[in-house]
Each structure stands twice: as structure tokens, then as C-alpha cells.
Write a structure and sequence with these properties.
Elements (H helix, E strand, L loop, with lengths): L1 E8 L5 H12 L2 E5 L17 H6 L2 E2 L12 H18 L3 E5 L2 H9 L9 H14 L1 H11 L1 H6 L5 H14 L3 H7 L7 E8 L3 H17 L2 H12 L11 H8 L5 H29 L3 E3 L6 H25 L4
Length: 323
């Protein structure tokens, strides 16, 4: 068995900082698990590691696609398993860090056998969203799969449409189908570290991060992305970019956009917490009660990883005893 460390938690909980600390201490490399960071040139709104940080520690699964291309959870999982195989060949510790729960599940547990796309149903649902609003479509999903509705934002019409489609095709909630999984990753002993800071501290960090994104030029970055790729790219509906686009089209002032982005990220954090708590019902998780930059959290994580590496090595020696 090979050791594998996973760091997850809500947005702004300090996953990047903790992953960098652990990677430098244990000679590891980092695999990003973020559904927007896979897109090139989307820097400020994704809080990607800086180029300086990437120079210190190699990162994988960043900048895989242009914003006008599609990256699914299955695509991410294929890239991720390829990166894991590369690190295994070099004997390097992989550290997965991110907050996109579905992508993490796809990578580690495999995806369920989803039904094929029904383009006629999709078009009908999109028309309904256009006529009656995204909230109306989201309420339809809530009736079919309440758990999925908790995890998917009403404004993410593409995901809402797919969740409704999958639930209707199988005649049971999509989230129940997720739990079956398939093609799980094998050959690894996984240590899951969950960051669980106090809510007040998390919300403060979220508010500061959202304001800093705009202060560092998110509106201009979004302007250039739209000019180069068009306004209809799905990643541009993600938090931060959606509000920056509203500034550009005049529907929000920058002050209003910052407040909306802050609220949106806080709501997203709630959904992430819900997701990862449910993941803890399926897999053992070591919860770290603080943010990833805390000295106490870093020390605890270091101790847990060291113990995990020792235990994995001991199992390996039992499987392959010296002659």
C-alpha cells in the first residue's frame, strides 16, 4: 500500500497553506482538487497557489483547460489518477488539497454509472429556467433530491439540470446513486485531514479573501477573460467571476459585488461543510479544529502524517518481509 494524504475543508479554511507545509516537510507534491482551478488564466477568483509557492512545491491538476472547454468530474479523475501513477513511480508522497467534494469522490471512490444525456429533457429544463427563473428549477430538484439541492447552488443551472436528469432517469435521487460509487482507487492507504475552523473565523477569512480578490484586480481579469473567450463560458458563473461580470455589465457596483461574493462564498462554505460531514460517515476523517495556517493545526497534521507514513511502511514490510 502507498500512502496518500487528503486535505479538505470549506473555502478559505487554509487548505493551500497546510498542504504546502506538509509537502515541504515530507517531500510531497500537491494535487489540486478544485473545479475552477483546472481552468487556465483564472487566477484571482480561484485563489490558486502563487507561482512562488508552485516553485517551492510541484503542483498538479491546475491549468488543464481553457475556460471555453468542458472539464467534468470524470475528466478530473482521469487526470488525477494519471498524476498519482506518476508520483508512485517516483516514490513521492501525493497530497490532495481542495474543496470540490464531487471531484474528490470521483478521484478516490470512482463515479457511479450515470445514465446517458437526454438532450430533449435538458432543453426543456433550460427553457423552464429561462422562463421561470433558476430558483424555480432548483425547487424542482429539491423535490426530487433534497440532498443534491443543498449541495448545488440555484444559479448553477447546468448542474441542477444534470441532477434532475439523472434523478428522473434512474427514478431515484442522484445522491443515492453517488453512494454506490464504482472503480474505486486501490493500492493506497488514505489519510483524510478535514479542516474545521470556528465559523466566525472562517467567515472572517472568507470576507477578507473575497474583498482581496476585487482589490487585486478580479474585475479586470474577468474583463479580459470574457473578451478572449466570450461571456457564455460556464466557469464564468463561478463565485467571484459572476459578481465581477455584474460590475462589467453595470448591474452591480463593485461594493455590491464584493458583498454578494462574500455572501455567496459563505453559503458555499455551508454546503461544503455539509458535504464533508457526510463523507465522514463513509470514510474515517481526522478533523483539525482550526485553520490551516495555525501553528497548532500544522503541528497536529505533521504528527498525523508522520504516524500514517510509519504505519503504511510497517504494513509494506509485512507484505514484503526481508529474506
Amino acid at each position: 500500500m502507498l500512502p496518500l494524504v487528503v486535505i479538505f475543508g470549506a473555502t478559505a479554511s487554509g487548505k493551500t497553506a497546510l498542504s504546502l507545509e506538509l509537502a515541504q516537510r515530507f517531500g510531497g507534491e500537491i494535487l489540486s482538487c478544485d473545479s475552477v482551478a483546472v481552468y487556465r488564466r483564472m487566477e484571482l477568483g480561484t485563489a490558486k497557489p502563487s507561482m512562488t509557492e508552485r516553485a517551492f512545491v510541484p503542483h498538479h491538476l491546475l491549468d488543464l483547460y481553457d475556460p471555453n472547454e468542458v472539464c467534468t468530474a470524470g475528466d478530473y479523475a482521469r487526470h488525477g489518477r494519471s498524476a498519482l501513477a506518476e508520483l508512485a513511480e517516483r516514490g513521492t508522497l501525493p497530497i490532495i488539497a481542495g474543496g470540490t467534494g464531487l471531484y474528490l469522490r470521483a478521484l478516490l471512490d470512482g463515479l457511479f454509472a450515470a445514465p446517458p444525456r437526454d438532450e430533449s429533457l435538458r432543453e426543456l429544463l433550460r427553457e423552464r429556467a429561462a422562463k421561470r427563473g433558476a430558483e424555480h428549477l432548483h425547487k424542482t430538484l429539491a423535490r426530487l433530491d433534497a440532498r443534491a439541492a443543498e449541495l448545488i447552488h440555484a444559479n448553477d443551472v447546468s448542474k441542477v439540470v444534470r441532477a434532475i436528469e439523472v434523478s428522473l432517469a434512474a427514478r431515484r435521487p442522484m445522491t443515492e446513486q453517488w453512494e454506490q460509487g464504482r472503480d474505486a482507487l486501490t493500492g493506497y492507504s488514505v489519510l483524510r485531514l478535514g479542516l474545521a475552523p470556528p465559523r466566525d473565523e472562517l467567515y472572517r477569512r472568507i470576507n477578507e479573501r473575497a474583498a482581496a480578490m476585487f482589490g487585486n484586480g478580479l474585475v479586470e481579469e474577468t474583463r479580459q477573460l470574457i473578451a478572449d473567450f466570450g461571456a457564455g463560458c460556464r466557469p464564468f458563473t463561478s463565485l467571484g467571476y459572476l459578481q465581477a461580470a455584474a460590475v462589467l455589465d453595470g448591474s452591480m457596483t463593485e461594493e455590491q459585488a464584493i458583498a454578494a461574493a462574500q455572501q455567496g462564498h459563505r453559503n458555499y462554505a455551508k454546503r461544503q461543510v455539509t458535504w464533508f460531514r457526510r463523507e465522514a460517515e463513509l470514510h474515517p476523517v481526522q478533523w483539525l479544529r482550526g485553520v490551516g495556517v495555525s501553528d497548532a493545526v500544522i503541528a497536529e497534521a505533521n504528527a498525523l502524517v508522520a504516524t500514517h507514513l510509519e504505519a503504511t511502511a510497517a504494513v509494506g514490510q509485512q507484505d514484503h518481509p526481508q529474506v
